[in-house]
Amino acid sequence: xxxxxxYFNRYFFLLESAEDFTGDGIVxxxxxxxxxxxxxxxxxxxxxxxxxxxxNVLFGKSGKxxxxxxxxxxxxxxxxxxxxxxxxxxxxxxxxxxxxKFEELExxxxxxxLASEFIDVSMPPRPCNFGKIHPITKVEEEISDIxxxxxxxxxxxxxxxxxxxxxxxxxxxxHHPARTMHDTFYVHRLADExxxxxxxxxxxxxxxxxxxxxxxxxxxxSFGRVYRSDYDATHTPMFNQIEGIIVDEGVGxxxxxxLMSDFLKKFFExxxxxxxxxxxxFPFTEPSAxxxxxxxxxxxxxxxxxxxxxxxxxxxGVIHPNVLEHGKTDRSKYQGIAFGFGVExxxxxxxxxxxxxxxxxxxxxxxxxxxxxxSAK
Length: 377
Description:
Elements: H1 2-16, H2 28-43, H3 48-59, H4 64-71, H5 77-116, H6 135-149, E1 153-154, E2 160-162, H7 163-166, E3 186-192, E4 195-199, H8 204-213, E5 218-227, E6 238-248, H9 253-267, E7 275-282, E8 285-298, E9 301-304, E10 309-319, H10 321-326, E11 335-342, H11 343-351, H12 358-361, H13 364-370
Helix pairs in contact: 1-2, 2-5, 6-11
């Protein structure tokens, strides 16, 4: 109460002289003086704390306006009607002024806080000293940087597709084994005009959406999760895949061979990396090939680029004319090349991670062993 009195002694002076309110000698002019004093103090409040103290002095349990309201029942009816109306008018006016002042001071406090906490978004970010970067994230960033340097644009598509975009437009016939229940995760068994809903089995679906959305020439790459019913040390029911296409006039297998050779050498950081192209079959490309990387076991470790052993890492080929036609592309004018590979396999080969299942279990010991610090980005 000492502090309150120090700040608001003028209220006590005015209100202590208002003992006349308890009897017949009620003077309305005292209310006018109180009103003027209150409005003056409210307008000159420079902090939320001081305004809150003023509100308590006036409207608290023992506040002066509260006490005046309590004394109204002791007055005569005529005085009660007259004084009651005046006190209520004073109470409403002072309350409105206090609330308005609260909003004004709160905005000033907010502006002051925002000014003091200003962040320059053009400045480099603060270093992150906790946690580690997942190997998949790091490799996807590395691959994105390489393909962006070739002029590729990133494209994205939905994880849940239908049979039409996942199989039909990719030149897979109705009897293709990938359509069976034991190979594919179907979301709903009921089919519509585009077939059943399913979790996409490859990111090739993204290339079809891109082909329909853009006019050649173009080059896109995409990466994301794909889903297949398989689980062991070298296969997981969900894994990450990267897909890329180029559609242009006169593009062919020679361009694909140079692109894949250069990419693998940059990714594995080995200029003398030995690779070979092996004929293969994919429904959506013709001709098709798989790319193998040479390796040898030395000191119990796999050494890439040398040796007489071979490991398949990439599937690729010239886009089948039927796929171009489904992509609303003039197959008499444009040709295309496509490639795709599993991110986990490339990550394991580059960074020596033995079991694919660890990528998704991501235990603390595993992430400490194979994760990357933020400074290594």
